[in-house]
Amino acid sequence: MKKTFILLLSLTSMLIFTACEVLNEAASMVNSATTTAPVKPSLTNDEVISGLKEALSVGIKNSVSLTSVTDGFLKNTAIRLPFPPDAAKVKQKALDLGLTGQVEKFETTLNRAAEEATKEALPIFADAIKNMSISDGFAILNGGDGSATKFLRENTTQKLVAAFSPKVQAAIATVKLTEYWEPLINKYNAAMTISGGQKLNPDLNKYVTEKAIEGLFYMVAIEENKIRKDPMARVTDILAKVFGSLTQH
């Protein structure tokens, strides 16, 4: 009887020890999962909108500051305005006539006009950001690269054209762009008169306006995607929270 009691006591002790060991191991696994698994921050609608507005504000300010300064377009190979493609024959003819200096001056002043025009962008962008809806915000947040830029493009392009066009026209006059354009186009058209070819008179104002807006949106997209991908670019707490949630899915 005594041996049986001792045997039962031993078995009971072993079972209790094993059970405790299993429970401790399970608890350790739960604690480990709790500490290592990223917790997605819960976001309110207000936080999403605030974060998106902040991101767009940072992006447009950086973009405008980069493009609206001297050489902002001219020295940036990604957005630099080239000689109008529709007038490529004019450029070649001018080069053939030894007017390389005038061609270079012309291209420089095209970019100066674009740099001047982009100074008008901030208030137009700010107005679009101010009117962003909750559905706009979530579409932008979850839309991936370039979705904020797409939102701005859809909501500001017409206003940008209206604002840029007179600025471009004034810039063209200020930098005397037509002084470089007219000799080129006149010489080309004179040659076309002799050869019977088609004369050209491209709309410089339209060309510069469209290219300036295109270049500005290109820079906005770069700034937007930087905030999406680079934690160091999230310069405020709300940016860190909102865009940090995207990397913890």
Radius of gyration: 32 Å
Biggest sheet layout = none
One letter per element, helices H and strands E, the order comes to HHHHHHHHHH
Percent strand: under 5%
Summary keywords:
single chain; 249 residues; mainly alpha; 2 domains
Protein topology:
Layout: H1 2-36, H2 45-67, H3 88-96, H4 100-117, H5 121-130, H6 134-142, H7 147-174, H8 177-195, H9 204-229, H10 237-244
In short:
By secondary structure, the chain is mainly α.
Walkthrough of the structure:
It is elongated, with a radius of gyration of 32 Å. It is mainly α and 249 residues long. The model is unreliable at 1-39 (pLDDT under 50). Helix 2 (45-67) packs antiparallel against helix 5 (121-130). It has helices at residues 2-36, 45-67, 88-96, 100-117, 121-130, 134-142, 147-174, 177-195, 204-229, 237-244. It folds into two domains: 1-37; 44-248, no CATH class.
